[in-house]
Specification:
single chain; alpha+beta; 434 Repressor (Amino-terminal Domain); Jelly Rolls; 2 domains; six-stranded antiparallel sheet; three-stranded antiparallel sheet; globular
Length: 198
C-alpha cells in the first residue's frame, strides 16, 4: 500500500509542477494546510477520496489516472464483473471499487462502497467532506447514517439519497453492521462539457 501511496503522490506533484500550480493554491483548493498538503505530495499521508477528486478536477484528468498512472481507454462501454473493479481504500476501513474505471470522458464516477460499522463513531460528530458536483447513494445492504450539512438521516436497504456534494456531507455505517452502497459522483458541468474524444 505504501508504494501505491508514493506513486500517487508523485503523479500529483508532477502534474502540479507541470501545470505551474503552487502548493499554496492546491492546499487552499483541497481544504488542507500547506504542511498537510506537502505530506500528501511526499506520500507521508494517505489520501482521502475527496482530496483525490479535487486534485483530478483541478488538473483536468480522470481520477483513475491519478490512481493508476493510466488513462481510461474505452469510449463506448465497459463491463465490470461481480467482485471486480478498481480497488481504492481512501478512508479508514472504507472500501471503494470503481465500477467504470476503463471508460474515458466519464460524466460520473461510479463506486461500490463498503462502510465498516464502528461502535465508537456512533455518538461522535461525523467527519465532513465537500467536492463539486452531485452525488447519488443507493443502499444495497445495511444502514448508512448521513450528515448532510447538519441534517441527520439514516438510510436502509433500498433507500437512496441524491445531493449537492458541494455542501458538507459525511457518512458512517449504522445499526450494528457494515453498509454496502452504490455511490455515483457526478462531476460539475464544466468538467465534462467540451472534452474531446481522444
Amino acid at each position: 500500500m505504501e508504494t501505491l501511496i508514493i506513486e500517487i503522490a508523485q503523479r500529483i506533484k508532477g502534474l502540479r509542477q507541470l501545470m505551474e500550480i503552487t502548493e499554496d493554491e492546491m492546499a487552499a483548493l483541497t481544504g488542507v494546510s500547506i504542511t498537510e498538503y506537502r505530506e500528501f505530495e511526499t506520500g507521508e499521508k494517505d489520501f482521502t477520496f475527496t482530496f483525490l477528486m479535487k486534485c483530478a478536477q483541478r488538473y483536468s484528468v480522470d481520477i483513475v489516472e491519478l490512481m493508476t498512472g493510466e488513462n481510461p481507454r474505452l469510449s463506448f462501454y465497459t463491463i465490470v464483473r461481480s467482485g471486480k473493479g478498481l480497488p481504492m481504500e481512501r478512508r479508514a476501513g472504507f472500501k471503494y471499487r470503481h465500477l467504470g474505471y476503463n471508460l474515458k470522458n466519464k460524466l460520473a464516477e461510479p463506486f461500490l462502497v463498503t462502510a465498516p460499522f464502528c461502535a465508537d463513531e456512533q455518538d461522535k460528530p461525523i467527519k465532513h467532506a465537500t467536492h463539486e458536483g452531485q452525488e447519488f447513494d443507493y443502499i444495497l445492504n445495511g444502514s448508512l447514517k448521513l450528515d448532510l450539512d447538519g441534517h441527520i438521516e439514516v438510510l436502509n436497504k433500498g433507500d437512496s439519497v441524491f445531493y449537492n456534494s458541494g455542501h458538507q456531507h459525511g457518512m458512517i455505517a449504522a445499526n450494528g453492521g457494515d453498509c454496502d452502497f452504490l455511490a455515483i459522483v457526478f462531476k460539475k458541468e464544466n468538467d465534462v462539457l467540451g472534452k474531446e474524444d481522444k
